[in-house]
Design goal:
The complex is a heterodimer of chains A (246) and B (59).
Chain A: H1 9-40, H2 54-81, H3 86-116, H4 124-145, H5 149-163, H6 166-176, H7 196-240
Helix pairs in contact in A: 1-7, 2-3, 2-4, 2-5, 2-7, 3-4, 3-5, 3-7, 4-5, 4-6
Chain B: H1 7-44, H2 50-58
The chains are: A mainly alpha (246), B mainly alpha (59).
Chain lengths: 246, 59
Amino acid sequence: MALIDLANPSRFLSLAERVLPWLIGITIIAFAIGLQQTAGAPDDYQQGATVKIMFIHVPSAWLGMFGWTLMSIAAFGTLVWRHPLADVTAKAAAPIGAAFTFLCLVTGSLWGRPMWGTYWVWDARLTSVLILFLMYLGVIALWRTVDDPSRAARAAAVLTLVGAINLPIIKFSVDWWNTLHQPASVIRLGGSTIDATILIPLLVMAGAFTLLFVTLLIAAMRNEILRRRVRTLMLMQAQAAPGSAS
Amino acid sequence: MNLGAHADFIIAAYAVAVLVIAALIGWVVLDHRAQKRHLARLEASGVARRSDRTVARTA
C-alpha cells in the first residue's frame, strides 16, 4: 500500500483496525520494560529519588511539543494541500497533546516543590509551557465552537501555525533567559550530560510514551472519521425527512 | 525501593500520570463505542452513504 492510499479515510480505517492491536501490545511491553528500568535506576547524587519524576516529566514535555509540531504539519496539509486526513489528524492530536502538556506541568510542579522550594515560578520555560497548554485549550474550544468541520479546520490551522512560534521559545527559553528551570541536558550540542544509568531508562520511557501517543492518536483519528460519517448520515436523514427544504 | 524523604511527591506524580493516561484511554474507548452506536442506529433506520449503497449493490 502506497502512503498516498492512506489519504482515503476508508483505507485508513481498515489499516487502523489492523495496526491498533499490535501497537497496544508493543506499548504495554515498552511500558513494562520502562517501569522496570525506572524502578532499578539509581538516585541522583543531588536530587535523590525525586529524579524518578523525570521519567514521566520529560517524555510528557517532549510529547506536548511533539503534538503541536504534528498539528502544525497537519495545518499545512489542511491549508496548502487540503489533504483529507490532515484536519482529522490535527483535531485528534489536540486533546492528546493537551493531556501530555498538563501532565508535564503537574509533574514539573511536584518535582519543583522539593527541589526548588516552590510549586511554580513565572520563569520563561514554565510560562511558555503554560501558554502551550492554554493554546491547546483554545484550539479544542475552536473545534467545538464551529459546527462545520471544514470551516473549523481552516480556522484551527491558522491558529495552530501562529501558535507554532511558541515551540522554539519553549526549547530555547532556558538559553535565552535566566530561568530557575535547568538548561537542556538530553538533546543538546555536545551530547547528553546525564549518566547512562539514568539516561537509558529515560529514553525507554520516552519510547513507551511516544508509542502511547501514536496509539491514542490513531484511535482518536478513527473515532473522528466515524464521527464525520455519523454527521453526514444525520444530514442525509434530515434532508430526506418529509417537509425538509431540499 | 526506597523513595526517600520526598516519596509523597514521587508517588503523587506517578498517580497523576496514571489518572491522565487512564482518562485518555477512557475517552478514546467510550468515544469509539458512541460513534459505532450512532452509526448502527442510522444504518438501521435505512440511511446509507452513496459509497456504501454502491458497495451493497455490487456485492
